[in-house]
Amino acid sequence: MERSDNQRTRRQAHRDDEGGLAGASVTTRSKSFAKSARDPFFDNAKYLAILLVVTGHLVEPHRDSPLVHALYFFVYLFHMPLFILLTGYLSRNFTFGAGKARKLIATLAVPYLIFETAYSLPSLILYGEFKLTILEPYFLTWFLLSLFLWRLSTPVWQQLRWPLLVALGLSLLTGTSALPDELSMNRTFGLLPFYVLGLMLRPEHFQLLRRPYMRLAGACTLGIGLAAALLVHTSVPTEWIRWRHSNAQIGVDDLTGTAIRLALLVAGAVLVAAFLAITPARHTWFSGLGSATMYAYLLHGFVVKIAERLELGLFLSTVVGLVAATLLCTPPVRRLFHWAVEPRMSWAFTSLRRPAA
Predict the structure, then answer these.
(1) What does the alpha-carbon distance between residue 273 and residue 278 come to, in Å, rounded to a whole number?
(2) Who is most buried in 12, 74, 107, 164, counting CB within 10 A?
(3) In this predicted model, what pLDDT tens digit does every residue of 269-296 receive, in sequence order?
């Protein structure tokens, strides 16, 4: 029995947190096993990616500089696709079982409501206006809502014969219509292929990226991608990399828009692979921080709002972004904000009700 428990714990640790940003909650009895069995590669990738996300938001006011705008454009091509792909990969075991449903509510639905409310409070304090639109995510909370919908759809994708092709078709087709802002529909459908691609990946695919020659190939690919961004960033509207609007809203016909979206999806997938290829696979000083990137993601918006009021310079904005992304993943922050990011919701659930025979 003890050996069986240990095997289950190792399998759970290998599945990590079942979400690209979220950190897994590990029981006291199994923490020692999880720590040894956890693959640091994914935690390293998530930590490095959250650095890009937070710093990108901090330097956004300085995009008037051509170089900053090019770097911003380059990073936005792949930093959220990276998280979404990892989320899909770590969600492969999601089912409609009672335990999974409870985790879905506790780690996504409830934090979404908490932070959607919290990010509406500054408007009340500063301007005396309180506008709360639960179905229209504000600022960075769109990811929680989209992830909630993606994860709900997981069993469907796992039963389709060509899931990635269907997801790609949906992504391109929805770009031809101005979808409502509710449920962040444009982003949810537009970025869907990265989630489904993550679901389709297997451990051997990531092992391929860890080969020595792939590190060099990844670095070269990122270099080429950066050079391309320097050449085209002024001619490509920023809205393309935010996935918020339809083709018509951005100002192109559907044929051109579909071609651009397909190019962005391909470019994002290639850059994600390149980024993962240069990600360290060994345990590093920041590996432990990578298990708590949801804290940095949800909390850094307040840092961004404060920095906007202070009008920080480019250098200081970059430093604040790197430091904030790191500190917000640390254990003291996790203990302080656990109630909001990973609330304990056992009191709200009961045994699974089944219909009478």
Answers:
(1) 9
(2) 107
(3) 999 999 999 999 999 999 999 999 999 9
